[in-house]
């Protein structure tokens, strides 16, 4: 997986996901708490409505009981007693008119009492007042009594009336109301009240009232619609299937208690029948239809404690409106989460670039180094960890390179030593064998020269040449023996400046003959510990090589200085430079490019042997601008490797 993806995943897992989950969880929790509050508020509202309706229905009954005691009605009781015997009371019309007048006035004050009737014992209507107007009493034929309405031949109803307890209001449905319901399709939401009228223990008739629901509407109109809820009241009536489930009051559909003509809607229409099913299971609770986005809180109560009728008071709320603030918060959370993901993406890309770039560079460096580019190092910079890595790489490369150089050097020394050893042995053997005859030749040549007569100049010259050549041969033999002997260096501390001058003096004669100038420069106070003579021999060999390579009138520069913890002595000339071929054989014993008689090819190999015994190095390179430079590097105390 790529670094960027890794970083992104980590950021998402460590921050965005838990934060989003947390905030969403907190929002969900707040919503649940809020919904509980909503349920409480609505429940309280519903209970208030129920309480007020119940109190109002109860007080209607109290008012009815009070109505029975007013003088206009008490004065009417004798009329009723007369009527009970089938006679017409002398003041019948006058008292009937007075009572009707009073009841009309009363209706003006208590509007819910829509129709007030005074019935005789057989339920014929003696007085009827509706909408503050009295229905006139009529004589239905000569024999008949002046009734406003005649009993409806409902023997069952009349029998029921006789059984009513005295002094108590009974809730019922008058036959007249039942007929009106049937005929007009009216909903007539409220039941009627009936109160027996008695005097001295004798039942004289009844006071009956049809209640209209203006005052209930009034209560409902003023009930608070918390959370923009809509109120509805449905009737559950197992005795009357036609009214079972009818909506008596409904903010949404417009049904009202006082308006019985409204086409009655049914509770089954509310939330697709869910409300009906819920009410059948529990008398209060909550129904939700997420699809329709509505919730209905409801409670059921008995408006008339002695009847089977019950009412369901419910308040429906818009779920979307309720959840709107939370939907807004959720949207904001998702938007923030989206933004965070975007930022995380940008950040991880940038971070991956910063972290990966040096790693990629480092990898390239490693590969190049492994492929043989030994000088390859990486630039150090950036973050601490990366910097450490880069420094480690460079350190490793340096160490490896140093180790390689040391190994090469050791190998070279080993080969050189082996070469020197084998060549040296051979040379030493030959040298010894030749040395004695050469000495003899020299002695004999001397003797012969002494014995020469005066004037034998030619023979004298020949003998002198013979001696010269013999001396040269013995010098070579001495060189070979020196070379073969490999004497270990004697250590002493000496000052470099004077030593350098002394050494140059040894080569001055040869230089002068070749018309080459020698120039020496030494930093003051330089000191060296080593074999003064052996090192001098090395420097002389290098000077001779330089002079031999130099054209006339050119300059050979010798310099001594301290550098890199070593003493560096260089001999530079303006000659033709090193030969192109056999560059690596220059240090081999007996390798020479000089004509026979001029060079034995031992100078450099002897020099190398001595310098390496001092723990130093000897190199030969071409100079920029022409010529060659030989460089001796010696550790300052020349503490040899042996
Ligand atoms: N300064 C120089 N410029 C050019 N070539 C050089 C220089 N020094 C050495 N060489 C080359 O290296 C060869 C080997 O040198 P080395 O000193 O070992 O032997 P030589 O000078 O030829 O003989 P010897 O020193 O024994 O008299 C030389 O023959 C020459 O080709
Ligand atoms: Mg030489």
Automatic annotation (TrEMBL):
InterPro entries: 2C_sensor_his_kinase, HAMP_dom, HATPase_C_sf, HATPase_dom, His_kinase_dom, HisK_dim/P_dom, HisK_dim/P_sf, Sensor-like_sf. Keywords: ATP-binding, Cell membrane, Kinase, Membrane, Nucleotide-binding, Phosphoprotein, Transferase, Transmembrane, Transmembrane helix. Coiled coil: none annotated. The chain crosses the membrane at residues 331-352. Residues 353-405 form the HAMP domain. It is found in: Cell membrane. It is an enzyme of class 2 (transferase). Its EC number is 2.7.13.3. It holds the Pfam family HAMP. Residues 429-638 form the Histidine kinase domain. Gene3D superfamilies: 1.10.287.130, 6.10.340.10, Histidine kinase-like ATPase, C-terminal domain. Its main location: membrane. It catalyses: ATP + protein L-histidine = ADP + protein N-phospho-L-histidine. GO terms for molecular function: ATP binding; phosphorelay sensor kinase activity. One of its GO terms (cellular component) is plasma membrane. It is a multi-pass membrane protein. PANTHER family: SENSOR PROTEIN CREC, SENSOR PROTEIN RSTB. This is histidine kinase. It comes from Thioalbus denitrificans.
